[in-house]
Known about the structure:
Blueprint: H1 2-7, H2 22-31, H3 36-39, H4 43-53
Amino acid sequence: MNEWLEDNQELYWKIVIPAKRKREFRDKLDQANINHRTLFPGLDGIATWLKEYYRPSASQ
Length: 60
């Protein structure tokens, strides 16, 4: 895989999300139904999603 990625660098890109906007991005992805619960079905996925969903926000 690494060799293929090196040979095809024009086919992908890296997106860096600033730490202070992480919560906002997770909320937007969750609204689009993209989260641990849907990406990783099973107990691990739902547990991770619940932990993130019920984490207190920084403003509280």
